[in-house]
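Ticket closed. Logging final result for TerC-like integral membrane protein.
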Amino acid sequence: MMRGVAQLFLKLIDKFPELEKAAFILIILIGVKMIAGAFGFEMPQFVFFGLLILIFVGTLVYSTIRRKKSDHSTSA
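Final structure:
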């Protein structure tokens, strides 16, 4: 299953290169959550997953807008 998810993510990165940067941001967020948990700070799951989804969707939206602007400027 993990191999399938990884392959899907690689295909998405090919289509949306900005996802590579988003992946690093997500890894940092996960690391911060783990370190904070070691010091007794617990982030609610819905907040954490909301942030993950927000970063992922925000990156896709940014990539799409950027691509449309690029296509528009090259066709004009």
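The mean pLDDT is 88. No further action required.
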